[in-house]
Write a structure and sequence with these properties.
The chain is an alpha/beta fold. The protein has helices spanning about 45-50, 80, 100-110, 115-125, 140-155, 170-185, 200-205; strands at about 1-15, 20-30, 35-40, 60-65, 70, 85-90, 160-165, 190-195, 210-215, 215-220. Helix 3 runs parallel beside helix 5 (about 140-155).
Length: about 230
């Protein structure tokens, strides 16, 4: 087993002076693992993901990412950590002035890669958008935008992939196909964490499942390699 990618120790999170959204959350994501994060709507799944991809600092507790304690990490060290993470946002966050192709290619361009056309075209065909590469996001359906966002998150083969309800806007057949894509990335070494309320996705795998209940994390199944 590889070293832990993510470690939470007694983490709490509150917004402003409101009640804690997360309470005493402790868990480890081992390198190379595939995990589903489940829980009722409003349980704090999105907040937990934000803490991992450094969009928010915790109110208390310790978080380490790729072996680095974030509480003492220098500000200059954070951007390189973020570049090792692929994120599928629930609201997509596509750039409307760029084509679907250019949205997907963006992480590779930012990383300085020049010969990326084949990778982008192959991935877009895999998610069923081979004929929509030159369309801009406002002209795409919600499900198509979702698939562009997923392709953008995985195109650079990140060390850690975080997905917030990645199949929420696609039909069951495409949802299963996307989960298989995540499974293939996992077999190549990417650590995967997927937040979902879709029980059929969870039950179709032998992946680890952890659930948020009243702001606390409960482990439901022991970690096993995903089988898709």
């Amino acid at each position: 087993m590889l070293a832990p990618m993510v470690r939470f120790e007694n983490v709490g999170m509150r917004y402003g002076s409101g009640p804690e959204v997360l309470r005493d959350v402790t868990f480890v994501l081992e390198g190379g693992s595939f995990t589903f994060l489940t829980g009722l709507s409003g349980a704090g799944k999105t907040t937990l993901l934000k803490l991992i991809y450094l969009a928010e600092p915790p109110s208390r507790g310790l978080i380490s990412l790729f072996g680095q304690d974030l509480a003492i990490a220098k500000r200059a060290h954070l951007p390189p950590l973020r570049r090792r993470i692929g994120v599928v946002f629930q609201d997509f966050r596509l750039l409307d002035h760029l084509s679907a192709y250019d949205n997907v290619a963006l992480p590779l361009r930012l990383a300085g890669k020049r010969d990326y056309a084949h990778d982008v075209e192959e991935l877009m065909a895999w998610v069923g958008l081979g004929d929509r590469m030159h369309a801009r996001p406002p002209t795409l359906s919600g499900g198509e935008q979702q698939r562009v966002a997923i392709a953008r998150a995985v195109v650079a083969r990140p060390d850690l992939l975080i997905a917030d309800e990645p199949t929420g806007n696609v039909d069951p057949e495409m949802g299963a196909r996307l989960i298989r894509l995540f499974g293939e990335l996992n077999r190549l070494g990417t650590t995967v964490l997927i937040a979902t309320h879709d029980r059929s996705l969870v039950e179709a795998t032998r992946a680890k499942e952890i659930r948020l209940v009243d702001g606390r994390l409960v482990e439901l199944r022991a970690p096993m390699r995903v089988a898709l």
